[in-house]
Amino acid sequence: MIELMQLRKEYDNLVAVDDLTLTVPMGEIFGLIGPNGAGKTTTIRMAAGLLAPTMGRAIVAGVDVAKEPERAQQHIGYLADFFALYEDLKVWEYLDYFAHAYNLPEGEIAGRINEVIAQVNLEVKRDQLIHGLSRGMKQRLGIARAIIHHPKVMLLDEPASGLDPKARLELRNLLRALRDQGATILISSHILTELEGFCTSIGIMERGRLVRSGSIEQVTAAATTTRLVRLSWAGDSPGLAQEKLKSDARISEINLGSGSGTFRFSGSEEDLAPVLAGLVAINVQVTSFGEVKQTVEEVYMKLSTHEVM
Amino acid sequence: MPRIWSNPEFIRHRRAELRPTRAITVGAVVLLLCVLIGLACWSSQQHQLSNLQQAAEQYGTDAWKHRLDVLQDNFVRQTSLLFFRWLVGLQAVTLTFWTLFSCAQSVSGERDRKTWDFQRITRLTSAEILIGKLLGEPVLVYFAVLCAAPVTLISGLAAGLSLGTVLSIFVFLVSISMFLGLGGMWLSTLLESRTRAVGLIAALALYGFTLGFFNFRDSGLPGLAAMSPLTGILDALGETGPKISPVLFNHPVSWLLMTLLLCGSFGAWLWLMLVRNLKRDYPEIRPLSRWEAVGCAAFLNFLIYALLSPIHNVGFEGRVGWFDDGKSVALFAVAMNGLFLFLMGLTTLTPQERLKVWRRTADKSALFADDGLPWPWLGMSAVVAYALMVWGLLAWNHTLPLEATTLQASAIRLLLVLVFVTRDVLFLQWCMLTRLRQPVVKGVLFLALYYMAAAVITGLAAVTSEHAARFVLALLTPVQVFDPEIRGLAFPGMTYAGLLLQIGVIGVVLMAINSRLLRPMRSGAAA
Fold first, then answer.
1. What pLDDT is attached to residue B1?
2. Which residues of A fall within a CB distance of 8 Å from B352?
C-alpha cells in the first residue's frame, strides 16, 4: 500500500508537487498521468525515499519513508525513467549484486536470479556482459533488478520506454502477474492508452497537483458533463429520429447523417432507455444505440486544456 | 561491524576490475616491473663497485680499498636496500595517487552514469557503501601492491631492516591511502556529475596539499607533517635529513604513530560527513550537523595545543621556534580560528529548501535549530574556541609565559574575527538562496574579489597617509587585529568602528536573506 499525505516539494520559488494526497490500496496498479514538469517523477522519487519532501509524508508498505528509509526501501522496487546499468558486469552478476544489496537469504539468491532472468526473457544472455545488450534488453534487466527482492510496492517511472511492442506486452503481463501476487504498483507514463489497458486506477497531475484520481470509470465519468450517444438505424433518412430527438430538452448537438449519427445527452445512463424506446415507438428502425465512452486520453486532454476542472 | 569481504559493493568492483585475465596480466606486469627494477638496482650497485675497483687500483690507498671492501661485503644488503626503497617509493606514489583519484570519481561517476539512485535505494547502509567503494574503487592498485608485497618484504629483510620496520611502512601506506581515499570520496560527493573535471582538479589539489604538509616539519606544529605521504616514508627509509620528531603534548612520538593519530582522527571526521550524507540527494547534502561542527571546531583548536612545539633545534641557529610566548600562540590561535570558523560555516550552510521551511515554521526559540541560520552556532564555536584557548595557554604557561592582558585581548580579537566570518558565511548563505549555479563556489570567489578590492583600496589610501590606509584596513578587513604592536586592550578606535560597520553589514545581509525566504512561490511548469 502507498500513502502519500500532503506531499510537497519546492525548488527555489517553484512548487514542483503541491500538497499531493494519494492512497493506492494493496494489489492496485495506479497510473500517474501528466505532462512534462507536472511532478510525476518528483512524486515517485519522494515515495521511493530518494528525494526528501519539503513537507508531508510518504508511507510505503506501512513504513514511513523519511523516518526509516532503508526499511521502507526493502519493500520498494524502483525503476527510473532514464537509467544505466553497470556495463562491466555480467547479467547474472548485476542481479547478484542487487540480491545481496537487498539482503536476500544467501541460499535463495541463485534460484531467484534464474527466476527473474526467465521472467524478463534474458536466459540466453545470462552470462554475457551488460555492455553488449541492446537497449530493450537493458530495460528488461532494469525491470528484473527492480523485482529481484520480491518488493511489495513497485514505483515505475516510464517503464515501457525503450521496449519494443512485444516487450511492452510482456511488461504488462509481468505487472499484472505481480499485482496478482499482491504487489502495489505506481506507474507513470506518457503513453496513456497503455495505462488504460491495465491500470486499476489513475491520477492526472497538472502543475504539481493531482487534479483527478480514482478508477478509470470514475475519472472519465467525473470529467463528463454530457454523454455522447451514437445511434444507427436502417434506412437513410434521419428525419423522424431528428424530430424526436429535438423534442427532448436534455438532448443537444444532434448530428445525424445517412443511417447513423451522434447526439449529446445530459441525463443519467438510466434515462437513455426511454429515449431509445421513444425512437422505436415512432418506427425508427434502430440497429444500434449506445454511449460512446471517453478514453483516458480524451479526459486528460480536456483536463489539461482546463475544459473540465 | 560491517562484513567487509562479503560487502556487495566491494564484490561488484572486484568482479568488474579483477576478471581472471586482467588479474593475471596485472600480476605479471608487476612482477616484470619488480625484476626490471631489481636488475636496474643491481646494475647501479655493480657500476658503483666497478668504479670503486678502478679507483682502488688507480690510487691504491687504504681508504679506497676500505671503501671497496665495505661495498663488497655489503653488496647484497646495499642492493636490496636500494631495491626496497624504489619499490616502496613507487608503491607509495601509485597507491596514494590511484586511491585518491579513483575515490574522487566514485560517487560523481555513479551520478554521471545514472546508476547512483539504484544504490541509494537498496538496503545497503551508507557505511556499507562507503567501505565497499573505499576498498573497491582502487581494488586494482591494491591487487598490484599485494603482488609486489612479497618481493618488497623479502628485499626489506635482505636489506637488514627489521620485520617491524617493513610492516610499519605498509601500515603507513595503508593508513595514508585510506585517508586520501576518504578525502577523494568526500570531494566526489560534493560534485555534481557535470563537474567531474573540477573533481579531478580538486583531487590533484588535495594531493598537492597533503604533500605540502611535509613542510610543517620545521614549523611550530611539526606533527602536522605526518599528514604528508612523504614524511613517514622518508623517515622509515632514513632519509629525513636532520632528525625531527613530532610532539604530542610536548612528548616526542614516532612519525608512524602521529600519522595514525592524524589520519585516524581526520579520517573519522571525513567518515562522519560521508556516512551522514552519502545516501542523501545532492541538494540535501550538509556535511555536518550544527553540534558536530562545534565539535569539529573544538577538535581543531585542541590539535593546536596538543601538537604545539614551542622550541626545537634547527641546524646552527640553536633553539628556535615559532612561538616565543603565550601572546604569539594566542595570535596564531585567533588566526587559525578565522579559518576554522569559516570552514565550520561552510559545512553547516542550510540548504535553501530547509531554510524556507525553518523560516515558515520557526518561532523565536528556534534560533539554534539545525535548519536555521548558521550564525548562532558560529558564536557557540567561538566561545568553545576561546575556552580551549584559555585552557591551552594556561597549560603551556610553564614554557610560554602568559601576560595578564593576553586573554582579554584575545577575546576581543576573536570577537572581531567572528564578526567578519559571520558576515562572510551569511553572505554565502544568501548566495545559496539565489539562482546562481554552484552558489558556494561563486560566493567564495566573490569574497576573494572583495578582499582583493579591499587590498587595492588600502593601497590607494596609503598614498594619502599610513593612518588612512590603516583606517580602511580596519573598516574592511580583520587584518588589523593581528597587529602585534597593539598592547593589551589598547585597540584603536578604528578597530571598533570596523566592528560596528560589519555588524551593520550583517544586519543588511540578514534582511536580504529574509526577503529571499519570503518570496511568493509559483506552481509547477505546465507542458
1. 47
2. 12
Cβ–Cβ of B522/A15 closer than 8 Å?
yes
Strand partners, A251: A265
> What is the SS3 assignment for A114-157?
HHHHHHCCCHHHCCCEHHHCCHHHHHHHHHHHHHCCCCCEEEEE
Please state the φ and ψ torsions of residue A262, each to the nearest 5 degrees.
-135, 160
Residues of A within 8 A of B8 (CB-CB) are 97-98, 100-101
| B262 vs B351: CA distance, rounded Å | 30
- Name residue A103's amino acid: N
B375: phi then psi, degrees, rounded to nearest 5 = -60, -35
A contacts of B357 (beta carbons < 8 Å): 54-55
What does the block give as the cell for A74?
526493502
B280: three-class secondary structure by DSSP: coil
Report strand pairing: A29-33 vs A14-24: unpaired
**Count of beta carbons in the 10 Å neighbourhood of residue A33:** 29
Sort strands A76-79 and A184-188 into parallel, antiparallel or unpaired: unpaired
Task: Quickly tell me which residue has 510505503 as its cell.
Answer: A60
Distance CA B476, CA B268 (A): 37
Distance CA B524, CA B520 (A): 13
Helix intervals (H) in B362-434: 375-395, 406-432
- Mark out the alpha helices in chain A (DSSP H runs): 40-47, 69-73, 91-101, 106-119, 135-147, 165-180, 192-198, 216-222, 239-246, 272-281, 296-304
Q: How far apart are CA B509 and CA B430, in angstroms?
A: 7
For cell 541509494, the residue is B120
Length of chain B as a residue count: 527
Q: Decide: helix, strand or coil at residue A84.
A: coil
Distance from B435 to chain A by nearest Cα, in Å?
8
Distance CA A7, CA A15 (A): 11
In this structure, what C-alpha cell is assigned to residue B309? 612545539
For the record, the C-alpha cell of A254 comes out as: 444532434
Give domain limits for chain A: 2-215, 225-293
User: pLDDT tens, B92-144?
Assistant: 999 999 999 999 989 988 888 889 999 999 989 999 999 999 999 999 999 99
Radius of gyration of chain A, Cα coordinates, nearest whole angstrom? 24
**Cβ-Cβ contacts under 8 Å for B77 (sequence gap 6 or more):** B158, B159, B160
- Give the gyration radius of chain B's Cα atoms: 28
Question: Pick from B265, B114, B106: which is nearest to B187 by CA?
Answer: B106
Q: What is the mean pLDDT of chain B?
A: 88
Direct distance between the N- and C-terminal alpha carbons of chain B, in angstroms, rounded to an integer = 50
Beta bridge partners of A230: A262, A290
In this predicted structure, the answer to whether residue B185 has a pLDDT above a threshold of 90 is: yes
Burial of B163 (0-12, 13-18, 19+ CB in 10 A): exposed
Who wins on pLDDT, B387 or A213?
B387
* Whether the Cβ atoms of residue B317 and residue B218 lie closer than 8 Å to each other: no
User: Of A83, A86, A90, A78, which is closest to residue A145 (Cα–Cα)?
Assistant: A78
Contacts of A86 in chain B (CB under 8 A): 12, 16, 115
Q: Which is it for the CA torsion B253, B259, B264, B269, positive or negative? A: positive
A100/B435 CB distance under 8 A: no
Residue with cell 560566493: B443
Q: pTM (2 decimals)?
A: 0.85
* 3-state secondary structure string across B143-178: HHHHHHHHHHHHHHHHCCCCHHHHHHHHHHHHHHHH
Using an 8 Å Cβ cutoff, are A261 and A293 in contact?
A: no
- What are residue B43's phi and psi, to 5 degrees? -65, -40
Question: A225-293: which CATH topology?
Answer: Alpha-Beta Plaits (3.30.70)
Instruction: Tell whether B4 lies on the interface with A, counting CB pairs under 8 A.
Output: no
Given CATH 3.30.930.10, say whether it is the number of domain A2-215. Answer: no
Q: Compute the distance between CA of residue A65 and CA of residue A50 in angstroms, rounded to an integer.
A: 9
